Structure formats: C-alpha cells, structure tokens
Amino acid sequence: MVVLIPLLTGCDPIFDVGGAFFPAWIICLFAGGLATLLIREILNWLELDERLLWRPLSYLGCFLATSTWTWLYFFST
User: Fold this and answer.
1) 11-35 per-position pLDDT tens digit
2) Domain for residue 19, yes or no?
3) What is the pLDDT at residue 68?
4) Domain assignment of residue 63, yes or no
5) Number of domains, the chain
6) pTM of the model
7) Which SS3 state, helix, strand or coil, does residue 65 take?
C-alpha cells in the first residue's frame, strides 16, 4: 500500500497559467486569500470587524473555508 503513494501525486489537477503549470491547490489558496480579504473589507464597511471574537482565528477560518469551497466547487469529481 505504501508503495502506491507516489502514484497518487499525478492525480492533482494542473493548469497552464501564462505558460507555467500550477497545481490546483495553489489556485484555491490564492482564491481563498482574495475572498478572505473581500470578507474583511465588507466587515470593516459594516463596522462588524471590531466585534469579532478572536479576530485572527476568525479570518483563518474564513480563509480555510473559502479555499476548501473553491476546491470542492471547481475541482471535485
């Protein structure tokens, strides 16, 4: 079973972006970061940012959730 693990590395979707090949997880992390910044700006505009409990943990949760949702929406089979 352990011998088959190196074969799974080829299962990751890879995209050509400007002539360079990027794994899909890099694109999902970038999209998650942008979505988190957008969420932060919206919360600042609504003046709800200062009411967040444990702000860094809240934004880390937003980042992980949006990155995961991006992966599931675009790359799940």
Assistant:
1) 566 766 666 667 788 888 999 999 9
2) no
3) 92
4) yes
5) 1
6) 0.71
7) helix
Long-range contacts: 63-69, Cβ < 8 Å, 24+?
63/32, 63/33, 63/35, 63/36, 64/32, 65/32, 66/31, 66/32, 66/35, 66/36, 66/39, 67/28, 67/29, 67/31, 67/32, 67/33, 68/28, 68/32
DSSP, residue by residue, 1-45? -GGGGGGGGGGS-EEEETTEEEEHHHHHHHHHHHHHHHHHHHHHH
Q: Which domain holds residue 75?
A: 37-46+54-77
Q: What is the mean pLDDT of the chain?
A: 82
* Assigned domain for 72 exists: yes
Q: Report pLDDT for 9.
A: 56
Task: Give a yes or no: residue 13 inside a domain.
Answer: no
